[in-house]
Amino acid sequence: MTDAEVHRIRNDFPILGSEVNGKPLVYLDSGATSQNPVSVLEAEQEFYEQRNAAVHRGAHTLAVDATDAYEDARTAVARFIGARTDELVWTSNATEGINLVAYAMSNAAAGRGGEAARRFAVGPGDSIVVTEMEHHANLIPWQELAARTGAELSFIPVDDDGALRLEDAASVITGSTRIVAFSHASNVLGTINPVRELVQLAQAVGALTLLDACQSVPHLPVDVKALDVDFLVFSGHKMLGPTGIGALYGRAELLNAMPPFLTGGSMITTVTMQGAEYLPSPNRFEAGTQRISQAVALGAAANYLTETGMQRIEEWETVLGARLVEGLTAIDGIRVLGPAAGLPRIGLAAFDVDGVHAHDVGQFLDDKGIAVRVGHHCAQPLHRRLGLTATTRASTYLYTTTDEVDTFLRAVAGVRPFFGAH
Predict the structure, then answer these.
(1) Is 3 helix (H, G, I), strand (E, B) or coil?
(2) Is residue 230 a contact partner of residue 210, using CB atoms and an 8 Å limit?
(3) pLDDT in tens, 324-374
(4) To bridge 416 with a disulfide, which of 48, 202, 274, 421 should be the other Cys (CB 3.0-4.6 Å)?
């Protein structure tokens, strides 16, 4: 991709032509929420205008059309990550997907699901493994699972630069480990973790794996079969889709053996006053009225990204990420977290400005029309490990230009002089 092509792409995103505080919007917060192309906006609107009906229920034509649109979207998103259609469960977001697996495991520990579900049960003497760089969404559900079941929560630590201490991983992932949950790419550090190495350590002891792919699926080519993970989660609003929709990938044989998390209508075969039997995946995990229009729009987002080319998007964001790190590193008083310049990272950079709080940095940049994220980015343990309470994060996407990165860097260079920090 080139800047000229990116400028053409930007025409598909109406919000990018707006102004903030009288300045052209420079949107560098796609790591939190991406913007939506017209095709995604139109897909959701078209559903409501032409196909709006309950899915998997009615026999009338409109209901059939709605169901077809809903399942076509599932097929598109499953194909986008290299999964089978029956291996993709719609969720509200990645957080719900992680909670779904965690609660299914505690349901299994309580004896639900019968013999097939026993492999998911955890209890005293078992361990759940995460990493010290995890987003709270991939930490707190496992803390709660440990509290409910008596299992132990362990973590792979990071070093002073925020990199995983892989030499410690083998001693953390042991014969007692039942699941290893970790991020593909850090939302703070930009680090791309060695998925296959961690998966192999888990497989060697018979543990399951869950990959938080919120910062990778939108930005890198992801093939779940090549990664060989058991479960993977991501959110629609980070990959050009709407809010309120995400997905859980799971191997079909695992999903069909897991006891459900939410129960009710649409996920059952037979119900008596004494009990129920559940549908196979993915329907067994989609109780109640589904996220229909959001799923349709996410399918359109996956198609947009596919047409643009995920390899090309990754290469462009690599250029932008390097430009961010090199530019920030050259500014006095700036500490950039994560891999040093020249090392692989996704297209984001979180940094600390000596003598200026991250919230003040964010306000200074916002006054210039530059949108960034400030705070602990839902990763307090990681910030604490690195001796920080908050950072400022700039994150790019396929619609970010090099001019925008340079505008941002010039603005950051003015932060310390403005606040009189020495």
Answers:
(1) helix
(2) yes
(3) 999 999 999 999 999 988 888 999 999 999 999 999 999 999 999 999 999
(4) 421
Assigned CATH topology for domain 44-306: Aspartate Aminotransferase; domain 2 (3.40.640)
Average pLDDT estimate for 96-117: 94
The 10 Å CB-count burial string (b at 16+, else e) for 123-160 is eeebbbbbbbbbbebbbbbbeebbebbebeebbbebee
Output DSSP code: residue 280. P
Q: Are 97 and 233 in contact (CB under 8 A)?
A: yes
The answer regarding whether domain 3-30+309-419 maps to CATH 3.90.1150.10 reads yes
Q: Which whole number is the average pLDDT over 300-320?
A: 98
Domain ranges in the chain?
A: 3-30+309-419, 44-306
User: How far is CA 92 from its chain centroid?
Assistant: 12
pLDDT at 422 over 80: no
Burial of 404 (0-12, 13-18, 19+ CB in 10 A): buried
Rounded CA gap, 320 and 315, in Å?
A: 9
Coil, helix or strand at residue 264: coil
Residue whose entry in the numeric block shows the structure tokens 């559903």? 47
**What would the pLDDT profile of 389-399 be if each residue is shown by its tens digit?**
999 999 999 99
- As annotated, the active-site residues are 378
Token output for 420:
């009189």
**Calpha distance 48→38 (Å, rounded):** 16
Amino acid present at 47? F
Predicted local confidence at residue 59, as pLDDT: 87
- Residue 83: what residue type? A
- How far is the C-alpha of 185 from the C-alpha of 171, rounded, in Å? 22
pTM of full prediction above 0.90: yes
Three-state SS across 14-49? HHHHCEECCEECEECECCCCCCCCHHHHHHHHHHHH
Q: Which residues pair with 271 in a beta bridge?
A: 276
- The answer on pLDDT for 276 being more than 80 is yes
Amino acid at 376: H
Helix axes 38-50, 61-80, angle to 10 degrees: 160
Residues 6+ apart with CB under 8 A from 363: none
Helix (H, G, I), strand (E, B) or coil at 123: coil
Strand ranges in 228-288 using DSSP code E only, listed in sequence order? 231-235, 246-250, 268-271, 276-278
Rg (CA), the chain: 22
Structure tokens at 72: 């076509």
